[in-house]
Design a protein that fits this description.
- By secondary structure, the protein is mainly alpha-helical.
- 51% of the residues lie in helices and 5% in strands.
- It has 13 helices and four strands.
- A hairpin with a 5-residue loop joins strand 3 and strand 4.
- Helix 2 packs across helix 4 and helix 6 packs across helix 10.
Length: 317
Amino acid sequence: MTKSNKPLKDYIRPFLEYLDIERGLSVKTQETYLRLLSSFEKWLKKNNLENILPHELTDKNIWDYRVYLSQRINPATNQPLKKTSQNYHLIALRSFLMFLMDKDIQSYPPEKIKLTKINLSDRPIKFLNLEQIKKLLDSPNTSTIQGLRDRAILETFFSTGLRISELTSLNVEQIKITNTQDDLELVIVGKGNRPRPVYLSPRALKSLSEYLSTRKDKEKALFINYKGPKDADKRLTPRSVENIVKKYSKIAGLPSFTVPHSIRHSFATNLLSQGVDLREIQEFLGHKSIGTTQIYASVTNKRLKDIHRKFHNKSLE
């Protein structure tokens, strides 16, 4: 490891280039890292540390930054920064320091940065019940090609529990539908480049089949945009899919929190409520750690508690 004479902040731009070229992260993810590290850079400047060298970063500096995050007010909510948001900042800083290590630049050890402990109650899960899911799935007008596409998107989301980036990355060649199959297994490469199987239900396959029967183009992407210049990339972006879900959640009269990720939550809580093991749900969702999946157990536990309170107590009356 070598000691650098360049200030720590001067490595932020090379780090973003590293995320793009060597790790292949999306532009949106790169923008998130830039936003989070810009906060750290502003903190350095505020504390007259803008010229601090990588190897000069100390335990006290890290502690003071954590205190700053815990006391910071979110201007959008006028509330203190949530613990999850604090951790996003720390994760970004840790990744930045790992990049320096990868480049043989002596710096503060990234493994020494511990994340703020989060209780399950601090991370409320927002999901739809089956009646609401059905309203959402039935809301597109399937007399149009856009409606057929949109219903296929919604059905695929709920059947697989895919992340939005995983869904928009799907290609037509992955969907091989025959007349005799009841379901379809796909192997996708998700977050962290971890492959996992996902499954399309008969209902999802029917929607996909009807949608694909309208496709006469040679586009590689499974879900495409029907608007825009002819020579533009037709693959739907995550933002476009978010807008599609938002559109149909309004049509179906669903809560404002209905977004692609809440459909993923609904997929997981539905499986768990029917007795599927938490480890299996971890595999379905592609979570690296069972601790991430554990949050869904708190939802089911609360539901069981409410059922017990409502019905069991009355049985003795």
